[in-house]
From TrEMBL:
Keywords linked to the UniProt accession: Ribonucleoprotein, Ribosomal protein
Domain of life of the source: Bacteria
Protein name: 50S ribosomal protein L17
Length: 156
């Protein structure tokens, strides 16, 4: 029975899975956006979001804890210097998964996983909202109704 075992093993042994998630997390932190399968992206989201939360408090203990997961000095430095500053006021939900369709070779469902505060196109689109349109009907005035036949009569 597999009660309360919800972690996706991704068809790999634990050492391979941990190494893969560590490498994917480093790539995500360095490049801010990566393309992968939906299953791996969901597993990566569960892996990287607690690390981003830890980076909000810059202490030696937190740096060492994050380094034990990532195994990359450059990724840890990028996380604590750049990413933690941008997500300081965000209470969670640091990543976004955008589905892109299926892969040609094996028809696997593909997606882009990205850090939310680094997608400039979506941030600009959110700021530049179009003006709110009124959905009320225009009242027809009696002047417009009487003028229409008069213009038709004068045209003849």
């Amino acid at each position: 029975m597999r009660h309360n075992k919800k972690f996706n093993h991704l068809g790999r042994k634990s050492a391979h899975r941990k190494a893969m998630l560590s490498n994917m997390a480093c790539s995500l932190l360095l490049h801010k956006r990566i393309t992968t399968t939906v299953a791996k992206a969901k597993a990566l989201r569960m892996y990287v979001e607690p690390l981003i939360t830890k980076s909000k408090d810059d202490s030696t203990h937190n740096r060492r804890t994050v380094f034990s997961y990532l195994k990359s000095k450059t990724a840890v430095t990028e996380l604590f210097r750049e990413v933690s500053v941008k997500v300081a006021d965000r209470p969670g939900g640091y990543t976004r998964i955008l589905k892109t369709g299926n892969r040609l070779g094996d028809n696997a469902e593909m997606c882009i996983i990205e850090l939310v505060d680094y997608n400039e196109a979506m941030l600009n689109a959110k700021d530049a909202k179009p003006a709110a349109k009124s959905r009320r009907r225009r009242k027809k005035s009696t002047d417009a109704a009487t003028e229409a036949p008069a213009t038709d009569a004068s045209a003849e």
